[in-house]
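User: I've been going back and forth on whether these two constructs are worth ordering. Before I decide, could you fold them both?

Assistant: Sure. I'll take them in the order you sent them. The first construct and its structure tokens:
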Amino acid sequence: MSEPASGVALEIEDLDVFYGRVHALRGLSIRVREGEIVALLGNNGAGKTTTLASVSGVVPAQSGRIVAFGEDVTKAKPWDIVGRGVIHVPEGRRIFSRLTIHENLQLGGYLVKDEKVVDQRIAEVYDILPRLAERRGQQGGTLSGGEQQMLAVGRALVAGPRLLMLDEPSMGLAPLIVTQIMELVERINRSGTSVLLVEQNARAALRISHRAYVVESGQITLEGPASELAADHRVIDAYLGA
């Protein structure tokens, strides 16, 4: 695994988020350096998805600060955050099932003004994911779960991410497909894209990450190099098993 660059892709400082009276994030702080894969681990309801939604501008912060590549985006609109290269692949894939693979990929470039750039990025996705190229005229809803996840990631790549945020990309997938997804994440990272990976499959996430955080009840309870957390008895007991 290559060493990340020294710049900071994402800085979250003392973030508080509420859903009505529910205090979902409680002073949460994390950092993703440029070129890193950072895993965010935790059980259902811990605040992982809320963290990504806050960075994306979908869920407003009550207090705290979110900085992406040196710019404060705490109150930025979601489309402005996408325009800065912060791209979110949400849980559940959320592809357009009635559109073709190619049309789904084209939508990934809706903020890119140069059509040639969009076409080039789609060609690169097809090169990375030849299975999508073979089926480019097929409706997205006819794909398997793994293929839909590949399409969701491919669509995000067409947007030109500097920071790619992935929410549970392995959910519901067979072990072989999970391995392929994680290999894809590593390949994307090697191309220079920073990655924030929310994942319940802690073993798979820690295997490919540089660093990791554990979030419980909206607070960070553990952080450190992924290799160290993978050997921490608290992480083993809670997330890895024997």
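The second construct, handled the same way:
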Amino acid sequence: MKIRANGIDIEVEDSAQADAAFAERPAVLLIMGLGMQLTAWPPQMVQAIEEAGYRVIRFDNRDVGLSTHFDTLGKPNLLWATLKFKLGLVPQAPYSLSDMATDALGVLDALGVARAHVVGASMGGMIAQRLAIAAPQRTLSLTSIMSTSGARGLPQAKPEIMRALLSRPKGNSLEAAADHSIKLFKAIGSPAYPTPEAEMRERVELGLRRSFHPVGTLRQMMAVVSDITRAALLSRITSPTLVLHGKEDPLVPYACGEDTARRIPGAKLLGIEGMGHDLPPIPVTEMLTLMTEHWRQCAP
């Protein structure tokens, strides 16, 4: 369903849509990562959270999926922005991660949800951190998955991973876009839990048919690169925090999760063996056990 939040249209999936009884349950707000749609949350993960007694709220971040696209803001020059960043300068972004956190709060407002357990993956973890900083009274708990504080000096992805992330499809067809995405997902995926290519292709093509908007991903990337103050503000987070991170993450190295947990008072860090920068079934099952226990301890 489409809702109006923070002055834009945001596509939302809410457990309470299908069953009004979920409206009375504690809410879990899931925030997805760079360029990824709400459908990227594994269905078994969503179902397991519901079966554990929670209302699940997912949404497409601005500029991806079926939410408002910001094409009037133009296409960023990512190479120039990266050079500026390496020189210690702050690139100009079309919008900020704080804006995206305000979008997430707007989703809660539109649905009448006063407080939620906030869960973010990758860039979504950065947005979730921003939300917890800005609105502690709305954040029952924070779970940051395979994310980072954004502090300078942290380990970065290997050059070949960045080349895969910044490369373009070899053509304009759906097949070319799918091939490109599959190559990237293989590069950053979990070495101990590889996804069969046929399964990955089916999932990728379903997402592309729903929406394909790569320039929006570039603008989101600019928001990430320009968010240079978040690390210093993480000490303000008062919500109980769980940091989950794959120990084999080639895109956002495990040290980034360690740094995030170190900066948030009382945060608990748990590393997942064999997990890269994705959400395969076995690590997801392990994370679900950890998250549901975390949420129970944070019950209002």
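Notes on the second construct follow. The beta strands are 2-5, 8-14, 27-31, 55-59, 116-121, 139-145, 241-246, 268-272. The mean pLDDT is 94.
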